[in-house]
Amino acid sequence: MSLTIRVRRTAASLAAMIAALVLLATGLTVATAGRAAALDPFTGYLMAHFTGEHATGEQIYLAHSTDGLNWTDLSDGAPVLVSNLGTKGVRDPAIVRSPAGDRYWIIATDLRIANGTSWSDAANNGSRSLVVWESTDLVNWSEPRLVDVASGISGAGNAWAPEAIYNPATGDYVVYWATNATVDGVKKHRVYYSRTSDFRTFTSPQLYINRGSGTQGIIDTQIVEVPNGTGGYRYYRASADGQITIEGSNSILGGWTRIGDLSHMGITNGTGGGNVVEGPMWMPFNNGSSWGLWLDQYATGRGYMPLRSSNLGSTQNFQTVSGYALGGTKKRHGSILQLTAAESGRVLAKWPSRAVQRIQSYNFQDRYVRHSNFEARIDANVSPVQDSQWRVVPGLAGSGTVSFMSVNYPGYYLRHWDYDVDLERYDGSATFRADASFTPVAGLASSSWTSYRSFNYPDRYLRHYGYLLRVDPVSTATERADATFRAVG
């Protein structure tokens, strides 16, 4: 969401301006404003998602695609953004672009099940805040911030699965999410909304979607805008409410008409069985004439599957799609943003695929740096070999440094603690970034090899001692040899 520029005009000229903007919008992104005419054509896609309830799974991951069906994990499958606020975990990210294409936001649920939180506690006594990141280029992101959106709801137990869409009728963003609260004596998840122009200040929450007086709740809802009202409506929303229900409207905050559900395809959200899915995720194809709807097959653990439609006005138009690949990580509830060529170029330059390498010891050349029970050491004949495979990535602390990310534990890095070196999960802190960053220099024992100077203790180097890795001062010939390595394929 970019800052709204308020320009005073007559009512007639304002109406004309809005009409012109509507006509100029030719392609729309999930959970964003209509594409501004100044944007270049869309040529790629960016998916923001989380990967599951494991140590690093509830953070922000990104994947890129050129065709919308075959995906490549960015950052070599490691988290791109990490929240160290609130519950210290995030789920259900939505990625949002401003109408002018000059600002982006990621908003996400503040929730971490992997730390032992029960679903009941999370739903009834969980965080009522969202986690927000902000960027002007999709690659350099602000520190995360917590925004309380649900405390104004009486008895609110949580704030889950946030989404946002620009509303040209009001010139700001509608942010909507699910909260578990009691209304008319019934406690269940309903969708609430608030308005914001800067993702910092929000209006008081209002009830948005309530599935009647019964106990059926609704959690996952996502809206897509389509050009020219294809199928009879300007906006369509898909919701997980026992079924995967599709509705249409010509106004985001107006009345919605139920179009149908996907039960005829054997797909439900639990009511009636079949293939039980959640997390509906829209994706306009860049051809401008068809729309994808990705569904998370969480009940069977098979991950996302795509459907495709050229007319969202009837659920009978949806068809299953084959020939897709989701990359190396499991994709859980997220959102997809269409990208221009310039945007794709930036994200691919920021997170290029890094080669898998082994780090060979100079004075014990049959031994390689490996992790064993999360302790870093050098060993020969490592099994499994993945324990000794690394991606040497740009240093978490920057400034010309490198960091060593585990291949079989993406998101885990070598870092020193009291000068001992271990494999640990990146927690997003500045201390971790400094501890896990090293400056490559000419090898202390041989200039054709490499030594790695500690970023935050520049008088110390990565070295082995008794085959265990440490960061130590180096002065003797033996120490120089212990601190000399070579990255090999």
Radius of gyration: 25 Å
CATH topology of the largest domain: Tachylectin-2, Chain A
Architecture per CATH nomenclature, i.e. the level-2 architecture of the largest domain: 5 Propeller
Structure classification: mainly beta
Give the low-confidence spans.
1-38
Q: Total domains, how many?
A: 2
Spatial sequence of strands, sheet with the most strands: 3-2-1-22
Tell me the fraction of residues in β-strands, as a range. 35-45%
Give the helix proportion (percent range). Answer: under 10%
Give the end-to-end Cα distance, rounded to a whole number of Å.
Answer: 43 Å
Strand count: 34
CATH superfamily membership of the largest domain: Glycosyl hydrolase domain, family 43
Which geometry do the CA atoms define?
elongated
**CATH class placement of the largest domain:** Mainly Beta
Give a summary of the structure in a few sentences.
The protein is mainly beta. Helix content is 9%, strand content 40%. It folds into 2 domains: 340 residues, 5 Propeller (Tachylectin-2, Chain A); 131 residues, Trefoil (Acidic Fibroblast Growth Factor, subunit A) (Trefoil).
